[in-house]
Design goal:
alpha/beta; Purple Acid Phosphatase, chain A, domain 2; six-stranded mixed beta sheet; 11 strands; 23% helix; globular; binds fe (ii) ion
Length: 267
Amino acid sequence: MKHEIPDNSNRSPSPFSPFAFAVIADPHLETPDQRGVEKMRQVIDKINQQADIAFVLVLGDLIWHQPLSELKALLANLQVPSHLVLGNHDAPMIADYGHEFGSVYYTFEYAGCLFVGLWNAVPALSEPRSHEGDLDDAQITWMERTLRNATRRQPSYRHTFLFMHVPPNHDGVEDRSLRMRSPTTELLYRWCKQFSVTACFFGHIHREESFSLADTQFITTASLNWNFPDAGTSNEDQDFGGYRTVRVHERSITHEFKLTHEFGRDC
Ligand SMILES: [Fe+2]
Ligand SMILES: [Fe+2]
């Protein structure tokens, strides 16, 4: 169940054991001819075949013009739980989403690890065309309290993972209008260092990106549905997509992005 970590240290995290999870970014289910929905079904089938996947993170830009019950029905085809955050394009449905799915920021625990989901596409609420990332004050306050309380747990969490839609505005980024604003990026980096975050997961830019700062990995997953030609693969068709598998070990993680058009080659 999604919840905030209470301000006490009485309840210990469950023991760690290695596990894997999947990451889906930017399914854009609204695309013509139900293409997004079909690709989502294809990836759900593929994930269901991976016996080691414990759950799925879905990193926003769902875009669902149908009743949200339809989205729930689609996700119900997964044989493992899914944990969603919203993207900038999902801003118009944020109220309905809250009624159907609960808070847009939350924590959950799995195998002695802490996962924190945030909605960091807040500028899209007031500026629908904005692709910038930012957090509101309520989330920042909640996040500081949540991470501080997490460090009081004994034994401590084996790993802490954050997941949200918009990636940080790090050195070398060309288009900063697609990134978290600089003050929020700096705040994220501070949290990662102060609270020993193992990895953060993002979507939004429709391409693959990965870098590390200190002991934290920042991993952006390309879209399930369509990507820019420079998405870090040899395929130049913008129609391609895929999902990521992350394997969590005691002291590290490994991960790989799987293209949907390669499904079947490993069967
Ligand atoms: Fe997107
Ligand atoms: Fe986006």
